[in-house]
Fold this sequence. Notes:
single chain, mainly alpha, abc type-2 transporter like fold, 2 domains, four-stranded mixed beta sheet, 6% strand
Amino acid sequence: xxxxxxxxxxxxxxxxxxxxxxxxxxxxxxxxxxxxxxxxxxxxxxxxxxxxxxxxxxxxxxxxxxxxxxxxxxxxxxxxxxxxxxxxxxxxxxxxxxxxxxxxxxxxxxxxxxxxxxxxxxxxxxxxxxxxxxxxxxxxxxxxxxxxxxxxxxxxxxxxxxxxxxxxxxxxxxxxxxxxxxxxxxxxxxxxxxxxxxxxxxxxxxxxxxxxxxxxxxxxxxxxxxxxxxxxxxxxxxxxxxxxxxxxxxxxxxxxxxxxxxxxxxxxxxxxxxxxxxxxxxxxxxxxxxxxxxxxxxxxxxxxxxxxxxxxxxxxxxxxxxxxxxxxxxxxxxxxxxxxxxxxxxxxxxxxxxxxxxxxxxxxxxxxxxxxxxxxxxxxxxxxxxxxxxxxx
Length: 393
């Protein structure tokens, strides 16, 4: 018992030393607390409405008829589109799009009403700037719906003029009724789609950087032997004591963003907040384990920092939420298991969105546990480096 208490006391002494280093280094404190908080608030408030609305579009009305003015009013009434400019010709509208002032152009040609009434199939043209993919997709939906409504209204008038009743007219216009069911995110809320990966990915990047930095800076400042001496030359006590304050801070940040997303913002969490909190803690520990493994494997401070940052950025693509891993090249598909964010994302989909038992994503939980244990493969190598390494700028 006395030996256990002594080991605990040594670990806490190392932790107190680390706390002093945190508050005496502004950059350290900023990366540990300031930047993650700022980025979390930024992403959670960036898409407060779930979807962007009132996106600027331009309409070229060359018909100047009652029908064309009605179309313009209807486009402006859509949630995602706002008729910000009425242009006289296509050159003016194209110039607005090239300058980034609009995301779409709707062209009503001359003679549109005359051709419509004469059943000569007038052509409506619309253009969307796919350089801004989300905005262009939403405006494309509005434009397509508007064109279908115009065509349907014209056909309906013709059929009624020929004596068909409302029921037969409706059956002709829409012979098959399609029911759409958006599973897990029925609101098509971009915040649900993006923030549940972007916020953890930001946290992951700073966990990587802080973990590598806090060990590598000991080598850079020449204080590694002092650190090891305080830890009684035990690499386990040294690492545990050094990472304990950071772990507590990251756990608090993880708790806050889970409570905000699933509690305050009411994002879907079918498996329950406690499970997601537990998985977030496991994810943070996995990121710390990978950071320790990285600095222990490479031992070069600057190179380790660069690799940790690169690995964090690439994780966003390799997680599978932007492009499915199943359709990646075989080499990339195999490589995806080496990214903790990939496993956290799969657990999030399984637990929060689908509400399945942890049994169905047990393999991803095991991978996170492997990341936590990964430093065991390099600890003794790291100890030798800490005791003998001489930093060269």
